[in-house]
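Marked as duplicate of an earlier ticket. Keeping the data here for the record.
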Amino acid sequence: MADVCRHEGLKSWVAEVAAMCRPDRTHWCDGSKGEYDLLMAQMVEAGAAVPLEKRPNCFLFRSDPTDVARVEARTYLSTASPEDAGPTNNWIDPAELKRTMTALYDGCMSGRTMYVIPFSMGPIGSPLAKIGVQITDSPYAVVNMHIMTRVGSKVLEELGSGGEFIPCLHSVGAPLAPGEADVPWPCAPMEEKYISHFPEENLIWSYGSGYGGNALLGKKCLSLRIASSIARREGWMAEHMLILRLTNPEGRQYHIAGAFPSACGKTNLAMIRPTIPGWKAETIGDDICWMKVRPDGRLHAINPETGFFGVAPGTSHASNPVATEMLMEDTIFTNCALTGDGDVWWEDMDGPPPDHAIDWKGKDWTPDSAVPAAHPNARFTAPASRCPTEIHDWDDPEGVPIDILIFGGRRSSVIPLVYESFDWDHGVFMGASASSEATAAILDKVSPVRRDPFAMQPFCGYNMGDYFQHWFEMGDRLGDKAPRIFYVNWFRKGEDGRWLWPGFGENSRVLKWMCDRVDGKVGARETAIGLMPEEGGIDLSGLSMPVGDMEELLRVDVEGWRGEIPDTERHFSQFGSHFTDRLRAQVAGIRKRLGLD
């Protein structure tokens, strides 16, 4: 593969990293099945991976207990000025951060192989795609990148001799002395973990973690933190969103992009099987959405990934039958439990729990154990080609035109089932004020309810006050071709603690209302928070619900909303002079509608 590379700048960078990290050998990845199989066989032999007898070509990994999720406290945005990073990012001066990390990288790959992974985010050659090159000493990262991105010689051919690429350097931070035995999951102590981004240079450096978005640098690091910064400069959007195609019984297609914090049902919605007769759903992506205004004046979207890196606990036939089917073959599982018959298991899986299993820490587990069998953030990595609802043209380099944008989160109270924005500016306020109860996808939970604007707070690669302004500017460009904006909350509970909405496939009923709104088929009632379904507006045919539940789901809790406003204003106040006047006007508007002014 090295001789396929015609890019002298890339070859020079690889040589520079090798001189600093001092690996025993260097391997240029070709993305082939043979390469994947060989690496997986080596990890099985080393005790890092367990083949699953019940699932063809599936493997289980167990991470170090200190390395189980994204670590926001160790994730940095390094810009010339802290003002450019903004208050929601951890900032370190670039020169200082590079000195610290260069010292850590010195000899960090001793005893290991250094893998060079040329990869494309988006269809190779697409006007919406970007090329990255990840250097890593983690074979686990390599096989995951095989699934999640387009890897190999075709990427180098597209890069040519002078194309632009995003350098992504990663090490688990665990050099091996001569003769030293390796461990199944090498990583550095928490205080030595750094997930660092240099958006002014389009550069990513990650050290010390082998897990998920900390190590698969095409994912959150490139696709969101670096890409969002590039998107602002170039006039497009890099968002933490699913992409879904819905087709109604008449054959009319609608394309939906939706932003939800991790572990809030994003994958389940992306793979929804509608319960309404005649409606069909197809999956385009479950996590990353890149959108550009194309020649037709509309916002077109691609999923730059080629796989799904989803949360396993809670995934079942009831919650996500598509994923359940998808995960039967060709999947990498991480931090799930291992059953005696060679299968994986996690909490809320179908059927009764096993009588005995090996938990995610490698210890015996029974249903009487005081700890969960799978880590709450246990993951699966599965190729998009395995998804039963994958659309036939999901790899179209032009992407799909977006009709609807959805924001949402996990809230047990206050937020109703669904409402629509009055206009684009109000929709930006809805996204900017989004919140969710904390999930297991991050280690640094600081409060039960987190403000998570656009589900992007952990992923925005520049000052989020400027990010809000970028949304307004995109709306100005789109004009009357802008998508409609909605907010949903599948997780509202009654006073008795019971879920009020059945969720899962029944969410298609809410999506149908949105599509009908786009087509002007149904009306809406104006409320203080937005446009709500009229009585009977949501199709409940064939669905049995307790009396009063729907009324409560669509009730505007005025007192609850009045209580939300101070917290929203506190969150917005941190952006200071970067807080846009247009968002300030939206705050004033909802205060007035709620009778606060």
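See parent ticket for discussion. The mean pLDDT is 95.
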